[in-house]
Amino acid sequence: MVILADLLQRQAVWRGGAAPVTAAIPAAPVIPTGYAGLDAELPGGGWPVGGLAEVLCHTEGIGELQIVLPALAALTGAGHRVAWLAPPHLPYAPALRAAGVRLNLLTVIRAPGRRDALWAAEQALRAGSFHALLLWLPRAGYPELRRLAVAAQAGPGFALAFRPPEAACESSPAVLRLMLEPNEGRLAVSILKRRGAPIEAPLPIAIDRPAFERPPRAVGRTPFPAIPAPGVVARACAA
Questions:
Q1: Of the four listed, 17, 82, 128, 208, which is most buried by Cβ atoms within 10 Å?
Q2: What is the DSSP string of 87-140?
């Protein structure tokens, strides 16, 4: 018979008002974000392995990818593959290389429609081929997000969905939800949802931006060429 202490230790019971995971309870595996101040506020100290996280942005191009680039650089530096699914624009290879991301281990997956993107994301997560999957989701319902969250549980890394700010008012199965806003050259990171007690004030995060980019973006403004035929096309990002 499973007792309550065992359930709490495995984090099978959500304790919304409880303190974050401490050293007394084995923390779930994470991948550090690379920002000490943010890691200090996240359960376990990073992006949740085997979990779905969300980043909500008020404006595109405020440096939202900088929040995840240190983790991608660390993962690819260790020889692990990462994937971007349905990014809004062509990835900007010089910025990614400058951030330490090994481009030969980055796969960009294109999808002609929303349903294709959701299907491709679920398949990629269930395959366990990537240690990080970044997904751009302008629209998604709770059942669709739930399927992604369940699929992410079996993987070796984390899944991160970029969503619009309106999604903050919607229910989500994500174990971590962040809201990003620009703040005097920094990012103000509000933690909307995490395991443990809520955080009251946004965290100011100083992001590292390459000097040669004006404005600095890891995703540029060049649109993808049209997909010639129905289906999902995957390719490795060329150096």
A1: 82
A2: -SS-B-HHHHHHTT--GGGEEEEE-SSHHHHHHHHHHHHHHT--SEEEEE-SS-
Token output for 164: 């619009």
Residue 66 exposed, middle or buried by CB count within 10 Å (0-12, 13-18, 19+): buried
Residues 48-92 have pLDDT tens digits of 999 999 999 988 888 899 999 999 999 999 999 999 999 988 899
Measured between alpha carbons, how far is 223 from 18 in angstroms, rounded to an integer? 45
- pLDDT confidence of residue 154: 86
Q: What is the pLDDT at residue 236? A: 41
Least Cα distance to 20 among 49, 45, 38 occurs for 45
Q: Rounded distance, CA 42 to CA 40, Å? A: 6
Pairing label, strands 52-57, 176-183: parallel
